[in-house]
Prior knowledge:
By secondary structure, chain A is an alpha+beta fold. Helix content of chain A is 28%, strand content 27%. In chain A, strands 3, 7, 8, 9, 10, 11, 12, 21 and 24 form a 9-stranded mixed beta sheet that branches. In chain A, strands 13, 14, 15, 16, 17, 18, 19 and 20 form an 8-stranded mixed beta sheet that branches. Chain A is elongated.
Amino acid sequence: MKVSANFIPTLREVPADAVIVSHRLMFRAGMLRKLANGLFAYLPLGLRSFRKVENIIREEMDAIGSLEIKPTVVVPGEIWKESGRWETMGEGLLRVKNRLGADFVVSPTAEEAFTSLVRDELSSYRQLPLSLYQINTKYRDEIRPRYGVMRGREFVMKDAYSFHTDDESLDETYRKMGSAYRRIFKRCGLTVIPVKADSGAMGGSGSEEFMVESEVGDNTLLLCKACDYAANVEKAGCKPDYTVPASIEEAKAAATSVPAIEKIDTPHVKTIEELCGFLKTDAKKFIKTLIYKAVNVELDLNTAPGCSKLERKSPSPGAPAVYPAAFFAVAIRGDLDVNEVKLAALLKAGEVTLAADTDVERFTGAPVGFAGPVGLNSIPVIADETITALNDAVTGALEKDKHYQHAAYGRDFTPWLTADVRIVKAGDRCSVCGGELYEKKGNELGHIFKLGYKYTKSMNVSYLDEDGKSRTPTMGCYGIGLDRTLASVIEEHHDDAGIIWPLTIAPYHVIIVPIKYEGAVKTAADDLAAALERFGVEVLLDDRNERPGVKFNDADLLGIPYRVVVGDKNLSLPQPSVEVKWRSEKENRLVDVSKAAEELAGLVCAELEKLNS
Amino acid sequence: MKVSANFIPTLREVPADAVIVSHRLMFRAGMLRKLANGLFAYLPLGLRSFRKVENIIREEMDAIGSLEIKPTVVVPGEIWKESGRWETMGEGLLRVKNRLGADFVVSPTAEEAFTSLVRDELSSYRQLPLSLYQINTKYRDEIRPRYGVMRGREFVMKDAYSFHTDDESLDETYRKMGSAYRRIFKRCGLTVIPVKADSGAMGGSGSEEFMVESEVGDNTLLLCKACDYAANVEKAGCKPDYTVPASIEEAKAAATSVPAIEKIDTPHVKTIEELCGFLKTDAKKFIKTLIYKAVNVELDLNTAPGCSKLERKSPSPGAPAVYPAAFFAVAIRGDLDVNEVKLAALLKAGEVTLAADTDVERFTGAPVGFAGPVGLNSIPVIADETITALNDAVTGALEKDKHYQHAAYGRDFTPWLTADVRIVKAGDRCSVCGGELYEKKGNELGHIFKLGYKYTKSMNVSYLDEDGKSRTPTMGCYGIGLDRTLASVIEEHHDDAGIIWPLTIAPYHVIIVPIKYEGAVKTAADDLAAALERFGVEVLLDDRNERPGVKFNDADLLGIPYRVVVGDKNLSLPQPSVEVKWRSEKENRLVDVSKAAEELAGLVCAELEKLNS
């Protein structure tokens, strides 16, 4: 393909809103243009690389027996109402009413569409397991789209959904997907960090995210310096730096030597820091207590203090019944913070937020700053696990300017629930090996997830088992963002001059740069291009009437892995030659022009094989 | 690929709403399922055939140098406002407001998106011609989607747009597209009828539609029994069955021997039929006059009778100024009907409809039934060309129960405009060769069209020519509907038992049917499948534990071109053999099992080559 016959509008200028390198380079290399905020058009060069990512994903999905289908992008709102997500998805879901007043959704994901399709076709256990995927357009109505295609509004996702008679079958497909994902990212030349939801000490896992490091990543990851532990901060645990009592009796026993609990005056002292100064002690001796409001709580609150009057309601027909709103006190060691994602997961809540001051006062009977677990009966108390090791602590006394000292877990208070709800931070210890954890920012490229019965139950999917009994299948879902994957390849492979494509994703394998496209140089360049193409090598021939410097800069910017310079001087050598350079290296070398095609084809094949193996 | 590892839910029942054969067979063969009215999911088998159509189109577009890009499916409403189509596209355009209140469109076509992209990148004549295409999801909010994917709401279209400095360059790309389209349909095994907008006598053409015959087609075509003339009834012309005078003077001269025009009483006579009976003459002697209302008329009405008070307005910023509404009288020979598409094209109007009775009375001064061109000055009179040959005609006298007889064109009345606005019908004569025309119903699969400056002007696209002058490029657009093309292949290739795929579009080339998938039969079937796959042949192996009859019926329903039956009996012959049958033939033949793979691979290659040549 000649450059003059292509459409590669390279730019020297960087678009003002392009803050990350992939965004800048995709624009500068003429791969991408903006149609509107968060909406981009791939130009020919960008689309070639995009299609290569797409093909790698398709090959690996096919290889594990997942079957490609193609539902629509615009889907009926009805199935989203069935699953309950019409209500719960928030404003990121692009809802459309058509001319007849019917509700539609521009799909952001397709659990509903696949589940509904399978529901209509599934009758017997013999049809399971079934693994289906699509590679299709998605839309999420991001409020602040940014970083180019890394967080656009419209994007392409490979999303697979699998259906199974039992957990073992789901496990097997889940494992195969995990291996396929590792191969996909390897073939794309990407270094990914696989992050298990509850890896390490907890054993098996129900979810794994595939992250790439990124300064502007949406996710904070915790990684171990000593082993390969990696976790999303939203879910990360750590090795306790305290001893957890085996039972509440053991906790009580350990507190026998502790002085009795005592209320003290702490005038004008509200924050942990102020208390530390006032009592000349350290935050690890405090029980911090925060009041949270949770919405759409699925957890059973039947036995929870202060909850007897709450009623469960179904937010939409078919959706599980939830408590629309409930309040909780969360007690945690004074030096730590509450992880709201863990808390929401514990409560199976739609969202948790700190309660308003008026709510705090209503439930604690005191102004903000004096909450504590001792004597708090108006709402359920949830204790972080760290609290169970505290038997001589300071905490709020539910009274203005008063705190307790010598408070002991098990003796002076018993929380309704105990769980891990702390935010794990750099410096904490790895739950697997005890090594030191450190933080990285990351972007999620892929996610595999055991959904279980969430959709198959709410959408009434069933099949008949060997005994003719009706059963509900269990389900997994598996996504990869194609645009993000492509952008991440550039994030990982570039230098100041431009992109450095891995050969598998490069729009072309070889760029031929004739010094001046005329006479013997033109003939040699054309012949070389034709010979390479006969070998199946993808060639871009820069036939433009531009100065060599301009062409070299563009070749570097486009990032084509091999550059071949054809010039009069080297063609006039006793052994007529061309200059070959690998994009990632500084040095070029002369290759006999009559052997150049074969040699390059060999290099291309070998490198492709290495990446694809 | 084994049938048991695939997902091919064949059906014996036909869905109730499936009235055409492709709809029925795509459902029965497990290719397609319905998500909602007009929204369909391709299942694995259907998607394989769909992708084959897609690849053929892509190869042929690439072969003529069109470059593939990928804009978004959801595009900003802003560019549709620029082109003026936000207002004029009607309710078929699916408009969406996002969470921030911005307007978007789920693209039904992409003139705006491509024009806006090119506008931003185009600077010099050196970049032209430029031909870009996409193969992407489209949405049209059909009120009555039907016939399966033949008229769905969401569909996939290949749409190309080309930009040029001059008409010669546009002509060249237009011709290349036309050839590519012929090749695409040939490779898909389709018989298409290319229909030029104004083919024949008129010379060059600005538009060509590629139609397939269909009982339920949206279009009526007129074809010549004697030559290859084909036209859409909307635009079809025919050879006159009358003599057109060379000038209005000649028409006047020819009327000298005709008696003077005379008003006669025609009590209670209104319709042409009643008049024919009353005057004992034939409808060809009458001038029928109809009053039309036209909206958004772009034609200049400066000199038109009764239009001096009309004002031009721009329906949206940037769109050309039009008369919001205007009325016209159309005079046509009594045996003919007015073609409203031709009339709208003549007036460059958004729409034309028959005027309300009150409007007819207002403009003609008489009740409905007495309109005529003689003395009608309140609105412009448009005469169909047939009228110019009438010099002794009967027509309405603009007065209740009165008609004129002996009315002569040129002597008694002079229309404002004369043009061809008749509906051509079966039995009329071909404008090229005079042969008899006949009618067919057809569906449009593709359309190539010289757009000219419509979008480049309204959206302000410009480039600098050789002399540094700013110029507007001219433009062409070229579409093919993929879903319709696939469905049309089935419409053309099927029998009572199922689909008969052309090899190029078949989901698999060969289906192997073991009589009982076990023992020696299983080994032979597996070996044959593996050998065929090594030759690059696509194989479906029916490993199900079903009766042979069920498997044979399904093989016929799926329409796989070659069927190989592997059974104990033939494997036990002195020359162990398998049965090979071509889907479209009744007879099968025995082939030596050791030579079956090579022979079949040879047949597959030869047939593919024939179709693709």
